[in-house]
Amino acid sequence: MPHVIVKLWPGKSEKQKAQLAEAITKDVMDVLGYGEESVSVSMEEVEARNWAEKVYEPDIQSKPTQLYKKPGYDLSELP
């Protein structure tokens, strides 16, 4: 714990996904104080044509209180 799920469009290389997972793991360790053995990261590729139905509506639009970075907003604008 924690487990981070990254949903992204297809087309990124395995190297890019591994680098992202490494960066996320490091940040989770630094910010939350967990050891590397406690952090897991997965990547779920979602086609652009399915993004609204499979990601935007269920994960972003319907869960505003769980969203800490909104699309199109600067991080400094969040409470």
Structure at a glance:
With about 80 residues, the chain is an alpha+beta fold. Helices cover about 40% and strands about 15% of the residues.
List the helices and strands and how they pair.
Elements: E1 3-8, H1 14-32, E2 40-45, H2 51-61
Parallel strand pairs: 1-2
Which CATH-level-2 architecture?
2-Layer Sandwich
- How many DSSP H or I helices? 2
CATH class: Alpha Beta
- The SSE order reads EHEH
Query: How far is it from the N-terminal to the C-terminal residue, by CA?
Result: 25 Å
State the low-pLDDT regions, or none: none
The CATH topology label is Macrophage Migration Inhibitory Factor
Radius of gyration over all CA atoms, rounded: 14 Å
- Tally of DSSP β-strands: 2
Oligomer: single chain
The main β sheet shows up as: 2 strands, parallel
- Provide the domain count: 1
Protein structure class = alpha+beta
Shape field: globular
CATH H-tier superfamily: Macrophage Migration Inhibitory Factor
Helix content, binned percent: 25-40%
Strand content: 15-25%
